[in-house]
Design brief:
Blueprint lengths: L1 H21 L19 H6 L3 E10 L3 E20 L4 E20 L2 E6 L3 E7 L3 E21 L1
């Protein structure tokens, strides 16, 4: 009976250990002054949505998003938007101080906009469809603000 309890506990703990061991940061391979991605590809950004972050603070309302993240790696979906007979306007302010980072807009499984790093940027469209804002990062320290109108 005691061995059965130990086996059950082990079976419950093992999946958690596997999940935790698979969550790790991606090394910054291209130096402190180069913020371009070195490991993650555009295909990864389009098809994946898993990330790990340390010491992050975020706030979100219907049209405003703000994040301060000490360290993030992987791909994070920020927002999915449906445009139907209206105009979509996206304003971004992405500041990267360490690591590598890319903020993109995806439509129909294609990256249609890569937002600028360390300066304000925007995107405007009236084309109907589903748009996804994603952040890809490799050990990045960032501050991100996004304002939406649609």
């Amino acid at each position: 009976m005691k061995k059965i309890k130990q086996l059950i506990i082990l079976l419950l703990i093992m999946p958690m250990l596997l999940v935790l061991s698979s969550c790790s940061h991606i090394d910054d391979l291209n130096g402190e002054d180069d913020y371009t991605l070195a490991t993650l590809t555009d295909e990864d950004i389009i098809n994946k949505n898993n990330s790990v972050s340390s010491f992050s603070i975020g706030s979100a309302s219907k049209n405003e998003y703000a994040y301060v993240i000490k360290k993030i790696s992987g791909v994070k979906e920020i927002k999915s938007l449906k445009v139907n007979n209206n105009q979509l306007v996206i304003y971004t302010d992405l500041k990267v101080s360490k690591g590598n980072c890319k903020l993109v807009l995806i439509k129909d499984k294609k990256i249609i906009k890569e937002f600028k790093i360390n300066e304000n940027d925007n995107f405007v469209t009236s084309e109907n469809g589903t748009y996804i804002i994603k952040l890809a990062a490799e050990s990045a320290q960032i501050e991100l603000k996004i304002n939406l109108s649609y």
